[in-house]
Amino acid sequence: MSENKVNYMNKTEKSSIKAHKTIRIFIYIIQLFILASIQQVPGFIPEIYGGRPLLILPLILTVALLEGNYVGFIFSLVSGIIMDLSLGNHIGVQLFVIGIIGYILGKVKEKLFKDSVFTFIFFCILIEPFFIIMRFYLNQGIFVVNQEHIKLMFINHIIPGVLYTICISPVIYLFNRPIFYFIREKEAEQN
Question: Could you tell me the residue range of the domain that residue 24 belongs to?
Fold first, then answer.
């Protein structure tokens, strides 16, 4: 086989891989905008004990676990911008925190853990409460005069919201996992 033919085959394989990865990322971005829109519509998602889920966060964790640290980081930054714009008070904080979470989670997945539902649930239980509580304090302010009001908000809205988000997270993961593996399988068939 000539060297030109080998180079051509390598280029077509690389473009095929890029096309499949682009398709997966496009699917994630569509989901991001749909979930962000659903999350912002008041009353669209029923409240459970006063809490509403943060739908974008499970998608970020899913992408980081499935795609790895680089794509997880970039997707987390894009998601962080959307989350910052929806919160409106402190632009850039969620972008920074969620970007680091996406990168670290993707790196941990590559080095330590296999992709599984249990790994995803473990990281949801670990990361989601931290992030939702941080978001609450950014929105309400850390030093509020009426501490009783903060306690009531925390008990009646934040804790149920954290539990609601953790419960709904596997649905988002289980929706994306077959898509990821189906497209990756097609990618492997072409190579």
Answer: 3-190
